[in-house]
Amino acid sequence: MAAASGFALVVAAAALLGLMIASILVAIQWVMEGMFRRRLGVYCGYAELIAVLGLIAFILHKSEEKCGVGSRTCIDGGEWFAVFTFLFAGILGLIVMPVVFVSVLRLSKWSAHRATFGG
Fold first, then answer.
1. Cβ-based neighbours of 100, under 8 Å, separated by 6 or more
2. What CA–CA distance (Å, rounded) separates 98 from 73?
3. How many domains does the chain divide into?
4. Is the full-model pTM beyond 0.85?
5. Whole-angstrom Cα distance, residue 48 to residue 37?
6. How many CB atoms lie within 10 A of CB 39?
7. Domain containing residue 97
8. Local structure of residue 71 (DSSP, 8 states)
9. Separation between Cα atoms, residue 44 and residue 63, nearest integer Å
10. Whose C-alpha in 39, 44, 82, 99 is 20 to 30 A from the C-alpha of 55?
């Protein structure tokens, strides 16, 4: 029972971390759009999406490198490394990416509307 509540706490903390990362990235793109206009925030959002995808790929590559087939590091007590790397990659893919993507879509719509009506 204690292990289940500990796991739930770790997942909740990871979800909170994902929301914090997503809010920082969203704030950056909206501030960039507000300061510089000309859809720069939208392009920054696209760059953030590509950067997060690259980070996910890097994390999974390093996890596979360390805990791959025949690796003694994960067998000898390194399982937590694999669990936390997959958890971090999961929060990036399941929480951060959708939030940033929806923000890019809304920012693009807002920026196009502002450009059309000269606001």
1. 22, 25, 26, 29, 45, 48, 49, 52
2. 33
3. 1
4. no
5. 17
6. 17
7. 2-117
8. -
9. 28
10. 39
**Mind listing the pLDDT tens digit of every residue in the chain (119 residues)?**
566 787 788 888 889 999 999 999 999 999 999 898 788 999 999 999 999 999 999 998 888 887 776 666 665 556 777 778 888 899 999 999 999 999 999 999 998 887 776 65
Q: Is 91 within 8 Å of 51 (Cβ atoms)?
A: no
- CA distances from residue 72 to 34, 41, 69, 78 in whole angstroms, order as listed: 51, 45, 9, 9
**One-letter identity of residue 55:** L
Can you state the angle between helices 2-36 and 79-91, rounded to 10 degrees?
40
- CA-nearest of 101, 105, 97 to 21 is 97
- How far CA 27 is from CA of 7, 14, 41, 53, 62, in Å, comes to 30, 20, 10, 19, 29
- AA identity, residue 78: G
